[in-house]
Amino acid sequence: MARNRDLLLNSGVLYPKAGEIHNAHFKLCWQLRAPENRDKPLDAIPAWQNLIREVSASPAEVAIVSCEEFSFSSDPARLALLKEHFDVRIVCYIRSPEAFLQSFYNQFVKDFQTRETRTLTRYLAEENPFFLSNRVMLEKWLDVFGRPAMTVGRFDTAVRSGKLFREFFESLGLSVPAGLQSPSPDILQKVSLPPDALEYLRFSNPYLENEAGHHAFVVDVVRATMAHKEAFNTTSNGILSLKSRRMLRNRYGAQNVWMAKTFWDQTTNPFPPSETPPPPEGFDARPEEADVRTLGRVSAMIRNLMLD
To answer: Long-range contacts for 276-285 (Cβ within 8 Å, ≥24 apart)?
Structure first.
């Protein structure tokens, strides 16, 4: 949407500049959880002040604020003030527990703020993956904005059908304008790295000390590996075993049944353990971590691909 801001505005849709970085509104989330803003009302936080002003001054009928971090790092109660200014709608897309965890971990390795150095297995053993608790997360938003204001979709089915963007717009009563340009390369930072490339970055993380240029560096690594993913699949870190996947579906099954009843009028688990997709072929024969030889090969391959 950031790439098509003018086109959207001509269609009556504002994609605000306030709080935006890397084509999404991350700064809004970051400022919400910043220690110095913890006790401030929303309209006393600079990025949110600017957002309210920008949206209020725009001739657009609809404004879209978009960031994945709203789902798990924000307290919706602090956003209640928005209802005094606007008719707020919440749109959220849900993934299966195993798909979300794998994607989340991959992103934690790539992001400068986290620069995760543990394997996925160790991360899962040591951390509470609170972000997989869909009922806990969604009830907070329900309490503030109410059921009529909320739309919950399935990320996997929307992506497979190629209709994610269209579904999102239709949930807001909008049509996708014709002539949209493809997103900027910045969004490649959100594309999951294959295991060997992820290992290259994970082992590099303790020594990546400068935030400046880090986002662009990760984009370059992703871009270099995208056309040759099969060459970066000799290790298994970042991929869950079949038993782990089923365990997660069982663990969060009750929460996901509640979600299906609340938002989809369904009475069954949308992610049944019996239908868990297996890991890639040959997964069990791969080492979890890369050795020195693998890291050297991957480093050389990425370097060569960047020069192509």
So the answer is: 276/98, 276/242, 276/245, 276/246, 276/249, 277/245, 278/242, 278/245, 279/236, 279/239, 279/240, 279/241, 279/242, 279/245, 280/233, 280/239, 283/236, 283/239, 283/241, 284/241
